[in-house]
Structures are given as structure tokens and as C-alpha cells.
Amino acid sequence: MLHTAAAAVAAAGLGWTLWHGIAEPGTALAFGVLVTVGELARWGARPGEREPAPLAAAGALAYALLGESAGRPTTHGVAQIVAVVVAGALVGAVPQVARGRGPAFDHVARRVLTVGFAALCFQPLYNSGQLLRATGRGHYYALFLVVLLVLYALCDAVLAALLLRARTGHPYGPLLRDELRALPGIGSAVCATGAVMALAVAVAGLWALPVFCVPLLLTQLSFRRYAAVRDTYRQTIASLARATEIAGYTCPGHAHRVAALSRAVGRELGLSGPELTVLEYAALMHDIGQLSLVDPVPEGATARLPEEEQRRIALLGGAVVRQTGVPAAVAVIVERQADPYREQPLPARIVRAVNAYDELSREGAQGAGGALGALERLRLGTARDYHPNVVESLARVLARGGVTGPAPG
User: Fold this and answer.
1) Is 58 within 8 Å of 90 (Cβ atoms)?
2) What tens digit of pLDDT does each residue of 245-276 get?
3) pTM above threshold 0.70
4) Of 30, 54, 223, 287, which has the fewest beta carbons less than 10 angstroms from its beta carbon?
5) How far apart are CA 49 and CA 53, in angstroms?
């Protein structure tokens, strides 16, 4: 539905602009080029980035908030703003299409709807003179811009969560909380840069655009480097988790399956982004305590061991994890995964249930029952071993098809 709304807004903007012509072609071209360059700069963006093209977002927002250029009032309206943003986004997507990746419809829909919202709130008031008559050019005008930027950021967060909900089926509440938590980061940088560029162009003209684009572009490059380091760190943990498979203590792919399914269950239960990362790390390393055993557990299936033995392996695993330099919260989850669920934190409950499900479903695949039998056995164990909410969340994730996409690592 959001794609349809964005397509309708884009078609209306393009149609109106083609029919009535382009006002101030030089200004429209400058901002169109800025949006295109920003879209091209999203090359190298990693899947899941909340704002893969911050420069394009800031440029589009600046055009929506532009009331003057070098002291002269502008005459472009909401329709032309939408048309320029759509044209810039489409041109910037050409290399992606040429490489066979296709356009990012969610990304374009967000850009069109949020920029259209900001332009609709600003342009009619400014062009009619009502805004300046009510606020002047002092503190009240700045306050109006701040309020508008907050509304713009909230609108973008709501749309991003809705689109992600439609694509993944995850609960909307946790997705929206993640988007709102991310606003002080790249979201605030986009809003501040867009507003400053609009004010600078109003005073100094279009030459202000390249000057104020450089800081955000450098920030984007720095963020990409940080993300690359974070990915390398995660790959190191994933490689360490494979030590139990290489040594023959666990079955191939077990740790990655548990990590992927645990993350999906954690999102179903409302964990935030940082909490999901800690959960994923703990799930990857949950069996690492088995490396301390003299005699390996058959197929690494710890769910059938006596409780004391499970706890001993969990404590050994926590001790190993603490030596790796990962956050202490990861070690706590590994250590407490074998405790009775009423004494466990939520991530440990998730790891315990998902680990047991993977082991029991693998056993069931060799006999009778399979995944459904494993899930039923987990439900029978909710009196003490597995938290009922975790088991039901796991059932909902499995009913939607389990984990989509590649396994972690």
C-alpha cells in the first residue's frame, strides 16, 4: 500500500511538472544532481542500513525546505520537489539496475513520501508569506524548522518500520522502537545537514551545496568503515563458533542455525537491535563449552544430558567466552542457558529453547516427528525447562517459514 501511495505521489509530481514546466531550472538541476550523487554514493551499503544514502536524503530535504536562493524567493512547489527527487533517485539507481540488483523500492518510497510530507508542510506556508509573517526570521522561524524536522524524522521512522514489517512479518512495535532509537544517529545528521544546506543556499546561493555536502559524505564513509569493522568482528565470532564443528563436537551448521532462529525469535519477542546482536553472539557460541569435554556428547546434543552436566558445560562455555573479549552480557547468556527458565534472562531462555528445538528436530528427521514433533516436545517441557512465551514465539516464526535468507556467518 505504501508503494502504491509513493507511486501515486511520484506520478502526480512528475505529471504536474511536465505539464507546467520547470521553475528555476538551474536550482532544480543542482539539487537533482545532488540527489543523484547521493544515490550513487550508496554503493557499498550493507543490507539493513537504515539510511543507505544520507547525502541524497539531506539534499532532498534541503530542496523541500528551500524558500530563497541567494536572497531571491524561489517559486518551485511541492510537485516539482517530488519530481526532482524522483528523477534523481531513478538516475542514481541506473548503475544498480545495470549490475542486476534492481531498484530499492522501499528506499525510494520512503524518500518520496517523507520529502513530500516536508515540502507540503513548508512550501505553501513560505510561498504565501504566512510563515514569515507569523514567525519572522528569528527564533520562532528556527523553532518552526526544528518542529518540522522532528515531524519529518518521526514520519521517516514510521514508514521505515511499516515497510520492514510488510517485508519480514516481524512485530511492528519493536521495529518502530529500533527506528526511533536510531534517530539520534544518522537521522539527526540528515535532518541537520538538510536544514543547514537550505539556509546556506538562501544566503549564499547554490555554491553552498558542495561546501555543506562534504561533512556528511565524510561521515557516511566513516560509518561504512565502522560497519566493515563490525562485520569483521562478527565473522571472527562466527569462525570461533565453528570450532566445535571442526573438532567434531557438534553437527555442521548447528551454531548458525541456532543463531539465525534465535535472532528471529528475539525480534518476535520485542528485543532491540543491540539486544539482538548480543543474543546472536551468544547463540553462535552457546556450545563452545563442549571443547572442554574429554568425551564428546553424541552429535553435540546437550538437551538430553542431566541438568548438572548441562550447567557444567554452560559454565565452561561462559569462561571461554569471557576470554574472547566479547561483551560480558554474551558470557552471561552462555552461562545461564541451562538454568531453569524462571531464573534466566530472556536471551538465555531463547537460546535454550532454540538449541533444544534444533537438536530434537534433527533427531526427529531420522525417525518420526520431525519439526512438529520437536515443537510439541518443547511445549510439553514448558512446566520447567522452556518458557511458554518463547516456545509460542518460536512456533510463530516457524509457521511463517522459519528464517528467510542466508544463515548468519
Assistant:
1) no
2) 777 777 888 888 899 899 989 988 888 778 88
3) yes
4) 223
5) 9
